[in-house]
Amino acid sequence: MATSHSRLRAGTLVAVLGTSTDMTPPTTPGTPTASNVTSSGATLSWGPSTDTGGSGLAGYNVYREQGATDPQLGSPTTNSITLTGLTANTQYQVYVRARDGAGNLSGNSALVTFTTTGGGACTVVATTQSQWSTGYVIQPVTVTAGSSAISSWTVTFNLPAGHTIAGWNAIFTQSGQTVTAKSHNGNLGPGASATFGFQGSRPNGNASLPSGYTCSSP
Predict the structure, then answer these.
(1) How do residues 167-191 score in pLDDT, each as one tens digit?
(2) What average pLDDT does the segment 146-174 reach?
(3) Do 94 and 65 touch, CB atoms closer than 8 A?
(4) How far from 95 is each of 46, 107, 113, 154, CA to CA, in Å?
(5) Cβ pair 194, 143 in contact under 8 A
(6) Which residue of 70, 119, 170, 215 pairs with 63 in a disulfide if CB–CB is 3.0 to 4.6 A?
(7) Contacts of 191 (CB under 8 A, 6+ apart)
């Protein structure tokens, strides 16, 4: 009986040791894009992640970039989400992480920046197309007219210290750390959009990006 019991325990041990645990996180999601921005909501979508660890892709966590503490805005099972309950006339910087069935989380996606409507004649959404240790490309920066046509628009944003930019499809001026981008021809019908972009240079190791995007029209 002792021999049989020993064999049973040995077999059980082999079975336990043979069980694999998923320690591999999913791939990082694509850069989110924002659409249908209103005073209290927005729709975000991003390139999907894949999971090869065995437990399968379970969904995504959506976070607001907010310094030391980044609140979670949602946890969809697909690569899109409609955010609700947002604050009017407020900038949001949002990123996404994928999660698998074992609870592993991917790296952070790039940020998308958008400002909810409220009191202005236009809205602005800035998308981080790419970034590296000493620079980045913000494109497109999408300006959308509200319920009425506009004849011009002005976008302002804050540039981190030590950064410089070169832009296109708008007239750029800078005062201190505040950058102003004005339309060449800002005629937009109700709900119509225009885009511009810029490339930034920053000190090596400085991971900050422009922020504080606002849009106005006379």
Answers:
(1) 999 999 999 999 999 998 889 998 8
(2) 94
(3) yes
(4) 10, 10, 9, 26
(5) yes
(6) 70
(7) 144, 145, 146, 147
DSSP code of residue 110 = P
- Position 73 scores a pLDDT of 97
pLDDT value of position 59: 97
197 neighbors 99 (Cβ within 8 angstroms):
no
Give the C-alpha distances (Å, rounded to integers) separating 157 from 113, 124, 141, 160, 172: 11, 10, 11, 10, 11
Pairing between β-strand 91-100 and β-strand 57-64 as defined by DSSP bridges = antiparallel
Percent of the chain with pLDDT over 70: 89
Residue 153 three-state SS = coil
Q: What angle do CA 27, 31, 36 make, to 5 degrees?
A: 135
Helix (H, G, I), strand (E, B) or coil at 87: coil
Closest CA to 182 of 132, 135, 147, 141: 141
Written as one letter, the residue type at 19 is T
Instruction: Tell me how crowded residue 13 is: count the other CB atoms within 10 A of its CB.
Output: 10
Question: In angstroms, rounded to a whole number, what is the distance separating the alpha carbons of residues 31 and 198?
Answer: 17
- Span 83-120, pLDDT tens digits: 999 888 789 999 999 999 999 999 999 999 998 876 56
